[in-house]
Amino acid sequence: MDISAEAQLVLYVVVCGAPAAGTVSTLVDLAQKERWQVRVIATEMGRRFIDAEELARRTGDRVRTGFRMPDEPDELPAADAVVVAPATFNTINKWANGIADSFPVGLLCELMGFGVPILAVPLLKDALARHMAFSRSLDALREMGVRVLFDPDAPSHARMPSWERVIEEIQQMLRDRARV
């Protein structure tokens, strides 16, 4: 499936609090070059690592962090795919266990129920990557259909794939889905 030949698809980018979040605008630009309409959702900590005003300018929409009130309109277009990058220890564990105490994690739990293709790209310290809860959470997410880009044997500085690799993987996920 050639995404550029399709109507514009919607990609949610969920950003957590890790250093790679500071360069997520590169992912946004790459996705837009591939004709994605991008919406950025950030955890509270993730918001500290990004330039929300710049991302809003690039995407044409504000960065979302909190839940909307019941009387407020749902302004997010339906997602065709989701990238969670960088995904932190906290977000991965809460998400896998259905602890929807923040908008980004609640949204991820809900999107899984709708069957939206989701790519998780964890980035965390070595000690946290060795924690039993983390490996169990990755297994649970994979079991629920989430694709995970994470090499536990890679040195910590090389665990985060390039943003180009992330875009390639999400496009491959859609091609795989189209074949089924």
Automatic annotation (TrEMBL):
Any one GO MF annotation of this record: phosphopantothenoylcysteine decarboxylase activity
GO cellular component terms given for this protein: phosphopantothenoylcysteine decarboxylase complex
SUPFAM superfamilies in the cross-refs: Homo-oligomeric flavin-containing Cys decarboxylases, HFCD
GO biological process terms, semicolon-separated: coenzyme A biosynthetic process
Flavoprotein domain location: 12-173
Gene3D superfamilies attached to this UniProt entry: Flavin prenyltransferase-like (3.40.50.1950)
UniProt-listed InterPro entries: Flavin_trans-like (IPR036551), Flavoprotein (IPR003382)
PANTHER family found in the cross-reference section: HOMO-OLIGOMERIC FLAVIN CONTAINING CYS DECARBOXYLASE FAMILY, PHOSPHOPANTOTHENOYLCYSTEINE DECARBOXYLASE
Protein name, as recorded: Phosphopantothenoylcysteine synthetase/decarboxylase
Organism annotation: Thermocatellispora tengchongensis
